[in-house]
Amino acid sequence: MPPLTTDSPDQPCEDRVLLDLWQPVGAVEAFPRGRVRGDQLLGVPLTVGRSPDGEVAAWRRRDGDSPSQVWPADGPVAPLLPTIERYGHVWTSLGTPRPLFAIPEADEPDRRLLHAASVMVHTSAPRSIENFLDMGHFPFVHTDVLGAEPHTEVKDYNVRVSVPDQEILATDCVFYQPQAALESTGGAEVDYVYRVPHPYCSVLYKSSPGHEGRLDVIALFVQAIDQEHIRAHMWLCLLDDNQPDWALRRFQVSIFGQDKPILENQVPRRLPLDPRAETPIRADKSAVAYRRWLGQLGVRYGVLPGAA
Ligand SMILES: [Fe+2]
Hints:
Helix content is 16%, strand content 34%. The chain is α+β, with helices and mostly antiparallel strands.
């Protein structure tokens, strides 16, 4: 059998489309004042930290840099990368970033905004996004929480690449869930909308118990450490204000803990873009659209490119 990949998993990313985007590097609260930490993004070693004045900064780590986790007394010596703080996370870019995608609900005054978890997973960023889009696994992986037998059918839904936002939009998704949210008191048909506004980020909208006509927002921001290792950051923008933070976090972490071994057992770790590589079924319509979209954008990092 020929090798599945020709390049090393840890070689630095050269995809212009990914370099010129904001990429997440951790929750805002993971960067206390006066501290720095070593990290990696798209195969590039970084130092990311917060100055004693409260400014976030990121720069490329070089051989021989101090391993100290204290903010350098004379400030960073390397050129700074751009940084922003948005949606509960710190974002940086290795190129010239286009504006970050919008999540308008984040600015609604009655929303509960919460970083839920950051989890290391031995998989590629595109595999984790595709898994996030897949409703078909709910009854089998999140049994009796996000799905249950015999309610295994994924009903037909719509998928399109939305213009002018240039993102994948899956609408009219409905799935029976025994416990769709921590606040749920019983099973219900739950409405879903999925957005993929960034090759490595997805935003999910779902019915909110007790808030007819409005939707909870759950976002997955994936930091590609290299082509086959990620840190998955989960962020909540909820209408629920009854549950304590720890309970909401525990619910999300328990769900993600069920996905992690599935993701880590997928072979190959990088997402094949060739439509013949893995047999899609109707339920995978969003996965098919996502793979095609990555190819059209010119994403090669974390994927196995399709036939020309
Ligand atoms: Fe899952």
